[in-house]
Amino acid sequence: MFSIKHPLIFKLASILFLLGTTSYTTPSFQIALLKYSGGGDWYANPTSLPNLVKFANRNLLTNISEDIATVDVGNPELMNYPIVHMTGHGNIIFSDQEVQNLRNYLIAGGFLHIDDNYGMDKYIRPQLKRVFPELELLELPFDHPIYHQKYNFQNGLPKIHEHDGKPAQGFGLIYEGRLIVFYTYECDLGDGWEDPSVHGDSDPTRQKALQMGANILQYVFTTKH
User: Fold this and answer.
1) Closest among 214, 161, 209, 217 to 30, alpha carbons compared
2) What whole-number distance in Å separates Cα of residue 48 and Cα of residue 135?
């Protein structure tokens, strides 16, 4: 397990990402699911991340471990994961120590993808404001590079599930010119990554979700650092 505290180590992870499975038999790195307090179901969509990793390894020739880690917001081992994923439907509470730990992680080079699984929005926004009081969540323009990696999404995030009839939106926290948090809202990407039997999504819908997820991974390792 590597630490992202040193920028050279993060660059090594980027190189391994680009080399992919054709050169390495041992997985280059591991991604993690973020566990938080407050009662929200941080554990939602259990098949989503393994399916996304398999898709990326197959289509981007990456070499990501299919063993998804779980890490608490306040755990110093957060520094071991280049990208962490957060999801759920309900309440989220960060302690002061967790706020500082997450801030340190993101400033050090980490990346947080938050996927609103419907009902998360009113809880996550105040917590993010505690982590970065000086920053505002900004909607990313459709020409942002995260939408134009291996797969092109000319109109931004794909709409995977309908809830309130609102368009899918991608928001970001940008720190010193670097996108550190990508928040996918009214989109349900994670639902689209799940096994087909879970939500009954069509193959084209699941493909769009997985392609956008692969773009996120590719962006983290080839663009932002």
Assistant:
1) 217
2) 29
pLDDT exceeding 90 applies to what percent of the chain? 76
The total of structural domains in the chain comes to: 1
Beta-strand (E) ranges in 14-90?
Answer: 32-35, 69-72, 83-88
Cα separation, 3 vs 157, whole angstroms: 30
* Residue 128 is assigned to a structural domain of this protein: yes
Question: What is the Cα–Cα distance from 102 to 110, expressed in whole angstroms?
Answer: 9
| Structure token digits, residue 108 | 């050090």
Domain coverage including residue 217: 7-222
Which whole number is the average pLDDT over 196-215? 89
Residues 160/209, Cβ–Cβ less than 8 Å: yes
Rg (CA), the chain: 16
Q: Identify the helix (H) or strand (E) that includes residue 97.
A: helix 96-107
DSSP per residue, 170-184: EEEEEETTEEEEEEE
CATH code for the domain of 122: 3.40.50.12140
Report residue 188 CA to chain centroid gap.
12
The structure tokens 């500082």 sit at 100
- Distance, in Å, from the CA atom of 58 to the CA atom of 45, rounded to the nearest integer, reads 21
Q: Are 69 and 32 in contact (CB under 8 A)?
A: yes
Q: Give this prediction's pTM.
A: 0.88
